Amino acid sequence: MAKLFSSKWRLKRIDYAAFNSIFLFELHSCYTDEMSYIFLDESGDLGFRFDKGSSRHFLITIVFAKQKRPLEKVAKKVHVSLRKKYKKVGVLHTYHDEPATRKRLLKLTEQQACSILAIVLDKKKVYTNLSTEKSVLYNYVTNILLDRLFTRKPIPLMQPIHLIAARRETNKFLNTNFKYYLQQQAKRNHGLKLQVAIATPSQEKALQIVDFVSWAIFRRYEHGDRSYYKLIQSKIIEEKSLFE
After folding, report:
1. CB pairs under 8 A, 24+ apart, for 158-161?
2. Tens-binned pLDDT, residue by residue, of the chain (244 aa)
3. Which one, 24, 69, 215, 244, has least CB within 10 Å?
């Protein structure tokens, strides 16, 4: 009986020790987030048939943050406040949501510890050979944007960097070659270890934030509407037009 009691007692001690170790690990992780995050999305298209509805501008936008949890909380907070008919979609999408929702999300984003960078492409100024090599153009524009981010160094360069790009039906250029190209460029030009993943906005909630941000910047160039842009302007550290 004493032997049985002793075994149970030892088991409890082991369980408690295991629990304590897990708890301390989780607590430590909360305060030492050593992963920097880059969330990437696009606005507009890479079509060149302007008489058939192609957008004049194409943008690639990134939102950089040292922690992604605050951005996820913004997306969740705004989604919870939606009217019932909009909640059915499951995720926020700037093209489907109301102006009040867009403004609220952008205002909340402006309050977060993040930085915004964007590359704006006026497709009417693109060289002819690039207009027929859309995957090359996509990689080229993305690499310039990341190069500007790494040059400005808002990222602690000793930390691993995780780039998460939004997967959409239209961006077929996000493939294995895209990942390899960016990883090699980051390593060769800046000595950085860049991890690249492609996910949907439902899988990575913070991608919903960059969707709204990119749309707001796109509105400024494509339609001359600065009303949404002004809400996040203070967070923009780089906004570059190509082929000017």
Report:
1. 159/34, 159/35, 159/36, 160/34, 160/35, 160/36, 160/193, 160/195, 161/35, 161/36, 161/37, 161/38, 161/186, 161/192, 161/193, 161/194, 161/195
2. 444 434 443 434 434 344 334 333 333 334 345 689 999 999 999 888 898 999 999 999 999 999 999 999 999 999 888 765 555 566 888 777 899 999 999 999 999 999 999 999 999 988 766 667 888 888 889 999 999 999 887 766 667 899 999 986 556 677 778 889 999 999 999 888 899 999 999 899 999 999 999 999 999 999 999 999 999 999 999 999 987 6
3. 244
Same domain? 13 vs 53: no
Query: How far, in Å, are 98, 195, 198, 206 from residue 63 at the CA level?
Result: 22, 16, 15, 9
Domain that holds residue 21: 1-32
Q: Model's pTM, two decimal places?
A: 0.81
Distance CA 62, CA 145 (A): 8
Q: What is the CATH number of the domain that holds 155?
A: 3.30.420.10
Neighbours of 164 (CB within 10 A): 22
Whether residue 84 sits in one domain with residue 10: no
Domain total in the chain: 2
Write down the residue that tokens 């997306």 correspond to: 75
Q: Are residues 163 and 223 in the same domain?
A: yes
Residues counted in the chain: 244
- Residue type at position 86: Y
Same domain, 133 and 206: yes
Regarding whether 134 and 93 lie in a shared domain, the answer is yes
d(CA 42, CA 97): 17
